[in-house]
What we know:
42% helix, single chain
Amino acid sequence: MLLVPKQLQRSGMTGNVPYYGGRLSPAQAYAASHPPRPRPRPAATPAATPAADPLPALQQLLDTGVITAEEFQDLRARVNR
């Protein structure tokens, strides 16, 4: 009695078959029980990112009412140092 289809018996087609002859291979059983962990992304270094002009962002915060005029002046003075 032949349990494996002829296509799966060929050496080139048995690569990553999830269900082979009624059983999982040991490597597939291990992979199923140990899902891959997400890799942490490397932190961007401040030197790698271009320096953006913060004054338009501050002006937008002032225009939308997030900060007051006094806070805007204080933050603008900090930026211009």
